[in-house]
Specification:
single chain, Alkaline Phosphatase, subunit A, 2 domains, 16% strand, 477 residues, alpha/beta, two-stranded antiparallel ribbon
Length: 477
């Protein structure tokens, strides 16, 4: 990771005599030597444990991130982007051109089947899909002007997660753990729960060409209920005592280190050594952490664990809080793959919102009550939005041209409604925020300069935002 750029400043040249020059120079030489030793020590620490905490480029507003991913693409005009003209002009043709590139044929304008109201002191518009989340309206920083580059699930999902819709690149969580390490050395720095099996699959949480230690650790997948997910490959054999296992690992480490010294630098082997050590440490930390029976009945109820409709995503949200509380840098919860309502818009979005509304509100309230929301960044959204024009009689097509995402905590401005789409909710038109801008802003909140967080591969420096991205400082508290 590169150091931050230093700013030039005007200096004056003092008058020195020989004694002053020698005294001050020797002090300078000493400080240079000390700095060199400290740098070598820091490099050695990172090399021995790549997940050790690292200094950010500047003072961070957030220490960790929880990403609530709504796979499929929630409709902005049915959730958070109220459009009175869409209701008024229901059934009429769109009064301007549709995008040249689209997913499927669409018809005339389709009003939302959901009722909107303003909530909180901020007056944030939200539909009746989210009665519990509406109680947290003044904690949300709503972005109604998101836009991306791809109208297909696979490309759009990868662009959201990795910054690229065409190439395999390190995921956002991998970049963040590469830049900052983890606050807990007994757990992975990046955990993704119930990740999607489609539309890019593992590439959505891959470390790609970054060292494999920054790869996301999946807990289950989209086909496994959240109460059955666990960190894999850490259970010790019942007939192997822990002290004997330690001896076995030490032998394997010695042999691997010997091979490393003979071969020189080998990222794959170094990562394998670190993975063995992390798995050994997790044997003690992970089982207790994944057992939520020590939470109160009130907490279980707040997250919806006592309701068959909400318990699956509720458990993910509760686990996210527990992981974040223990210092995991990046945690992702995935509601997969349900928001793709090309038809049955009212029924589909109603069922989806019921599954996530209470758990998300429970998470936000819990983080706030524990004093964690101020330095935990919560991000909500899908890979794109949906069209304000109809597909069939009761559906909407994919729409990356303009849609909504929100953040909470972690240094963003609460109760802010930022940006806007056009009068019908199709295109982002005011204070537009591209996914590259979102990534740059998230990194900045975590104390990382998106232009400085680079990794040299195949002869060039890569970064999450590639050659794009601007930090949207208007979103900061």
């Amino acid at each position: 990771m590169k150091k931050s750029k230093s700013k030039n400043c005007h200096q004056f040249t003092p008058v020195f005599n020989r004694r002053d020059m020698l005294r001050q120079s020797s002090t300078g030489f000493g400080m240079l030597a000390l700095a060199s030793l400290l740098q070598q020590e820091s490099v050695a620490e990172v090399k021995n444990n790549p997940l050790s905490p690292r200094q950010p480029h500047f003072e961070p507003k957030a220490k960790r991130i929880i990403f609530l991913f709504m796979h499929g693409g929630p409709s902005q005009v049915d959730t958070f982007d109220y459009k009175p003209l869409l209701e008024r002009d229901n059934g009429k043709p769109l009064p301007f051109n549709k995008p040249r590139v689209f997913s499927a044929q669409t018809g005339n304008l389709l009003k939302s089947p959901f009722k909107f109201a303003q909530h909180g002191e901020s007056g944030m518009w939200m539909s009746d899909l989210f009665p519990h989340l509406s109680e947290c309206a003044d904690d949300l920083c709503m972005i109604n002007s998101m836009h991306g580059s791809n109208s297909r699930h696979g490309g759009a999902l990868l662009e959201l997660h990795t910054g690229s819709d065409t190439f395999v690149r390190p995921s956002m969580g991998s970049w963040i753990t590469y830049g900052l390490g983890s606050e807990n050395q007994d757990l992975p720095g990046y955990i993704t729960m119930c990740p999607t099996l489609t539309h890019g699959g593992v590439n959505a949480y891959s470390s790609a060409f970054l060292p494999a230690v920054y790869h996301g650790t999946p807990l289950g997948n989209a086909s496994i209920p959240a109460d059955q997910i666990n960190i894999p490959y850490i259970k010790n054999a019942a007939d192997t005592p822990r002290d004997l296992q330690r001896l076995e690992l030490n032998l394997a480490k010695d042999l691997n280190q010997r091979g490393l010294s003979e071969r020189g630098e080998d990222n794959a082997l170094e990562t394998r050594i670190n993975s063995f050590e992390l798995a050994y440490r997790m044997q003690m930390a992970a089982p207790e952490l994944q057992d939520v029976s020590d939470e109160t009945e009130e907490t279980h109820a707040a997250y919806g664990l006592d309701d068959a409709t909400t318990k699956n995503f509720g458990r993910q949200c509760l686990m996210a809080r527990r992981f974040a509380e223990r210092g995991v840098r990046f945690v992702q919860c995935t509601h997969s793959y349900k928001w793709d309502q090309h038809g049955n818009l009212k029924g589909g979005h109603t069922a989806n919102a019921r599954e996530v509304d209470k758990p998300i509100a429970g998470l936000l309230k819990d983080l706030k009550q524990r004093g964690m929301l101020k330095d935990t960044l919560v991000l909500w959204g899908g890979e794109f939005g949906r069209t304000p024009v109809a597909q069939g009689n009761d559906g909407r097509d994919h729409n990356p041209q303009g849609y909504s995402m929100w953040m909470a905590g972690g240094g963003v401005k609460p109760g802010l409604i930022y940006g806007a789409t056009d009068d019908y909710g199709y295109y982002s038109v005011e204070n537009k925020v591209h996914l590259h801008d979102l990534h740059a802003t998230i990194l900045h909140l975590l104390g990382l300069d998106h232009e400085e967080l680079t990794y040299k591969y195949a002869g060039r420096d890569f970064r999450l935002t590639d050659i794009y991205g601007r930090v949207v400082t208007d979103l900061f508290a």
